[in-house]
Design brief:
alpha/beta; Rossmann fold; TIM Barrel; six-stranded parallel sheet; five-stranded parallel sheet; 14 helices; 16 strands; globular; iron-sulfur cluster binding; iron; Elp3/MiaA/NifB-like_rSAM
C-alpha cells in the first residue's frame, strides 16, 4: 500500500511581496521524560516570522508539536484528541535517553510528530527556503533542535541555519560547540540580530518597529484548537529563580488595538480558547488589558481565557476579579510559591494580600476547580516540609495545588546557588537543568517520593 503524500506546508507572504526571501521557522520536538500540552506555542518564533513577513519575506512554519498544514487525507498520524479547553497529550515515541541522563529510571521520549514525517515534510517544501530559523523553548530540550538542524543541513547544506530561543541565548557556549548553525541570542528585533539575519540572507529590510516582537504569525496554524495572546514581553520584576531579564532585558507592553485584532482574526477562524502568555499580565492594565477585556465583554464573543503563566495575587482586587470573570477568564493560575511569607524568592506577597486575592476570586464567581496555585518545589536548600504545609494551605481554600518543579536556569539570580547545591554539572551540561530529575533535591528524583507528593496534592496521606 502506497503511503499518502505528506501535505504541503504553504509559504505565506503579504500581497505583492511574494518575491522576497523565504524563511522557514521550525519548532522542534520535545525530548524529555514527560510532556503535556498546556496551550503550547513558540511565541518567540511566531514573533520572528511575523516581523519577517511584514518586512517582505515569505514565511512558513513547521511545528513538530502541532500539525501546521491544511487538512489532508489520512497520513497515518495518531494525534490524541484535544482535552479540556484544547490542552492535551502529545503523541510520543520512546527513545534512548542522552548518555548524561541514562541513570534515570524513567522512560525518555520524543514528543510530537514522527521524525520520519517531519523529514518528509521538510523534503517536500517547495520552493526551498533561503534561511531556516530553529527555536528552543527549554535549555534541556536542545537534542530536538540539534536533530532538526541536522535534517535541514542534509537537505539544504548551503542555506543559512539560525538557532535562537532559550538554549541559544542562555547556553551560548554549549550551543556554539554542538549546534551546526548561526546562533541568535536574544530577540530578533534588536538592531544587531536583525542586521545579522538581513546580511545572511541578503535581505535589505528596514529595522522592525512599532509592535515588532508582540505581533505573532498565528495564522500559520491551519486548524488551531486554541490560540495565545501576548500583550507584553519581559517582566518588570526580578524573581531569583527566573531568567526573564536575561531573555528579554526590557519590559514592553503593546496596544489594545493590536491584541484585539489578533483575537478577532483567530475568533473568525473558530478559536474560542485563548491563553495569555504574559509574565506580568496585571501590570499597568490600563495600557491594554482593560480595553481588551471590555471589548471582549461588550462583543459577547463567548471566549474562554486562560492564564497558564501565574497571575500576581496581590493585584487581584474585587474590581480586577470581576472584570476578568466578565470577560471569560476560565482557567486561573496563581503564583503562591510558599506560605512562608517572610522568606520569599519572588515578588513580595503578604499573607493578607494572598488571603484577600483568594477571597476576591471566589466572590467573583470563579469555580474552585478552575483555580490552580503554583507552589515551588525543589529549590536549592529548600525545606520540603514548607512545601507540604503550602499544599495543605492551598487545599484548605478548596483550590488545586500544583508543584512548580524548579528548573535551574542560567542567567537567573539563583543559578549560582543551584550549581552549588546540585550534584550535577548544571553549568556545563544543560540536560541536567531538567526539572524532571529534581536536580537540586538531595537524592534526586525517585518514584516513591513522586507518588507520595501526588497523593498529597490530591489530599490523601502520602
Amino acid at each position: 500500500m502506497t503511503r499518502p503524500a505528506f501535505p504541503h506546508i504553504p509559504w505565506s507572504s503579504l500581497p505583492g511581496r511574494e518575491n522576497g526571501p523565504r524563511v522557514l521557522g521550525v519548532n522542534p520536538w520535545i525530548t524529555d521524560f514527560a510532556a503535556f500540552n498546556v496551550w503550547s506555542r513558540p511565541a518567540g518564533l511566531l514573533a520572528c516570522l511575523d516581523m519577517l513577513r511584514a518586512a517582505g519575506a515569505s514565511v512558513a512554519l513547521l511545528d513538530c508539536l502541532d500539525p501546521t498544514w491544511e487538512a489532508a487525507p489520512d497520513l497515518g498520524l495518531k494525534w490524541p484528541r484535544p482535552g479540556k479547553y484544547g490542552t492535551g497529550h502529545y503523541p510520543k515515541e520512546e527513545i534512548e535517553p542522552p548518555a548524561p541522563l541514562a541513570f534515570m529510571d524513567r522512560r525518555y521520549s520524543r514528543y510530537g510528530l514522527p521524525r520520519e514525517r517531519v523529514a518528509e515534510a521538510l523534503a517536500a517544501l517547495d520552493p526551498a527556503p533561503d534561511a531556516v530559523l530553529v527555536t528552543t523553548i527549554m535549555t534541556y530540550w536542545y537534542p530536538g533542535a540539534l536533530d532538526v538542524l541536522d535534517l535541514c543541513a542534509e537537505l539544504w547544506p548551503d542555506v543559512p541555519r539560525l538557532l535562537g530561543g532559550t538554549y541559544a541565548t542562555l547556553c551560548g557556549e554549549h550551543a556554539a560547540r554542538h549546534a551546526d548553525a548561526h546562533l541568535m541570542a536574544g530577540p530578533l528585533e534588536t538592531p544587531e540580530n536583525w542586521s545579522r539575519l538581513s546580511w545572511l540572507i541578503d535581505f535589505d529590510a528596514p529595522q522592525p518597529s512599532g509592535n515588532a516582537g508582540l505581533s505573532l504569525a498565528l495564522d500559520l496554524y491551519a486548524d488551531p484548537p486554541y490560540s495565545i495572546l501576548l500583550g507584553s514581553r519581559g517582566c518588570p520584576f526580578h524573581c531569583e529563580y527566573c531568567a526573564s531579564h536575561a531573555l528579554y532585558p526590557r519590559f514592553r507592553q503593546g496596544t489594545a488595538d493590536a491584541v484585539m485584532k489578533s483575537i478577532q482574526s483567530e475568533h473568525g477562524r473558530g478559536v474560542r480558547d485563548f491563553a495569555f502568555y504574559d509574565d506580568a499580565l496585571l501590570i499597568n492594565p490600563d495600557r491594554w488589558l482593560w480595553p481588551v477585556l471590555d471589548r471582549i465583554t461588550a462583543a459577547d464573543l463567548g471566549l474562554r481565557l486562560h492564564t497558564p503563566n501565574a497571575m500576581h495575587v496581590r493585584h487581584l482586587t474585587p474590581e480586577v476579579c470581576a472584570r476578568l470573570k466578565a470577560a471569560g477568564l476560565t482557567t486561573v493560575r496563581l503564583g503562591l510559591e510558599t506560605t512562608d511569607f517572610d522568606h520569599r524568592h519572588d515578588v513580595k506577597l503578604t499573607r493578607e494580600q494572598w488571603e484577600a486575592g483568594a477571597r476576591n476570586l471566589v466572590s467573583a464567581g470563579f469555580e474552585l476547580d478552575d483555580i490552580g496555585v503554583y507552589i515551588l518545589f525543589g529549590l536549592p536548600g529548600q525545606d520540603l516540609g514548607n512545601v507540604e504545609r503550602a499544599v495543605a494551605h492551598v487545599r484548605g481554600y478548596g483550590f488545586r495545588p500544583h508543584l512548580a518543579h524548579y528548573t535551574p536556569i542560567p542567567g537567573s539570580p539563583m543559578f549560582g546557588a543551584a550549581c552549588a547545591a546540585s550534584p550535577y554539572p548544571l553549568a556545563g551540561e544543560p540536560l541536567f537543568q531538567n526539572n524532571s530529575i529534581w536536580p537540586c533535591v538531595p537524592g534526586g528524583f525517585n518514584w516513591d517520593e513522586a507518588r507520595r507528593w501526588k497523593l498529597l496534592l490530591h489530599g490523601q496521606q502520602g
